[in-house]
Specification:
Elements (H helix, E strand, L loop, with lengths): L2 E4 L4 E3 L2 H10 L3 E4 L12 H7 L1 H11 L3 E8 L5 H8 L3 E2 L4 E15 L6 E6 L2 E5 L4 E6 L4 E8 L8 E2 L26
Antiparallel strand pairs: 1-2, 1-7, 3-8, 4-10, 5-11, 6-7, 6-8, 6-9, 6-10
The structure holds fe (ii) ion.
Length: 188
């Protein structure tokens, strides 16, 4: 379950409805997909895509996406630092950025034109759709691992376009994560 923080307002939202509503209000689609699949998180990419084919096909129809793949990034990924450096500065794309998280965590910062910067921490089971033109940046969490399904309208055209605003420097890429709740299930 994603959690969002609005650092400038000292707010954190963890409730599913509240997260979905807040993100919807700034144009970001958020969904939870059933995680009780028979596919393992480390299964080959084609098995992952097959297991989620219904959802992928639905999104393709809605968003005009033509291809889907599975990206794996972890501490052993060659060129990891260079890769991360491409995406941890404020940028936008001419295409939607669509991710369904299979494993690991990541932190999207969204910079709406009319409201405060929002940090969206995503984990397994979370789908996030960042529409084209939305200012954002991305970091891995402390465990430096993420595996995700990506959907593309045109894979050849997907590249970051930087604002060079420096806005990203003002926000710490810190994930709170599940460990925020030391006794999972205890209390409300
Ligand atoms: Fe991006």
């Amino acid at each position: 379950m994603a959690l969002i923080t609005i650092p400038d307002e000292n707010r954190t939202l963890r409730n599913r409805e509240a997260v979905t509503e807040y993100l919807g209000g700034i144009g970001i689609d958020y969904e939870r997909w059933d995680s009780s699949r028979s596919v393992a998180a480390q299964a080959p990419a084609d098995e992952i895509l097959d297991a989620y084919s219904d959802e992928i096909e639905r999104l393709k129809v809605v968003g005009g996406y033509v291809t889907a793949d599975v990206i794996d990034v972890n501490a052993r990924t060659p060129g990891l630092e260079a890769m991360l450096a491409r995406f941890n500065r404020e940028h936008w794309h001419d295409e939607d950025e669509v991710r369904f998280i299979i494993k690991g965590r990541g932190l999207f910062h969204i910079h709406p034109r009319e409201s405060a910067v929002v940090a969206v921490e995503v984990e397994a089971g979370d789908l996030i759709r960042v529409p084209r033109g939305t200012l954002h940046w991305f970091n891995l969490c402390q465990d430096r691992e993420i595996r995700a399904i990506r959907l593309f309208q045109d894979p050849a055209g997907w590249a970051p376009r930087y604002t060079e605003s420096g806005a990203d420097i003002n926000y710490q890429p810190v994930c709170l994560g599940a460990s925020y709740f030391p006794a999972q299930g205890a209390g409300g």
